Here is the input.
Amino acid sequence: MIPFISIATLLVTIGFALICIYIAKLLLQISRLLKTIGTTVSQVEGQLDGTIAETEQLMDSVEMTTTDVEEKLVALTPVFHSVNEVGLATTNFTETVHSYAEKLAEDQMIERTKPFIRIIQWNEFRTALQESWERGKKAANHS
Here is the structure.
C-alpha cells in the first residue's frame, strides 16, 4: 500500500506542480497585460493632457474671435445706420425724380399741344384784328 500512497502522493505533487506552473503562467500573462494597460493608460493620459491644452487654446482663440467679431459689429453699427439713411435718401430722391418725370410728361404733352394753342391764339388775334378793322371801317363810314 505504501507504493500506492507514494504513487498517489507523486501524482498529487505533479498535479500540484502543474497547477502551480499554470497559475504562474497565468499570473505572468496578467502581469504583462497590466504592464501593457499601464503603458497604454500613460500614453492616453499624455495625449489627453495634450488634447486638454489644445482645447484650452481653442477656447481662448474662440473667445478672442468672438470678442473681435463683437467689436467689429459695434464698429459697423454706424455704417449700417448710414446705409439706412442712404436708402431713405435714395427713396426720397427716387420719389422726387418720379414726380419730376410725371411733370415732364405733362409738360411734354403741353409742348405737343402748343402748335394747336398757337393756331387758336392766332385765330383769336385775327378775329380781334378783323373786328377792330370792321369797327374802324364802320366808324369811318358814319362820320
The radius of gyration is 58 Å. The CA atoms of residues 2 and 8 lie 10 Å apart. Residues 1-113 form one domain.
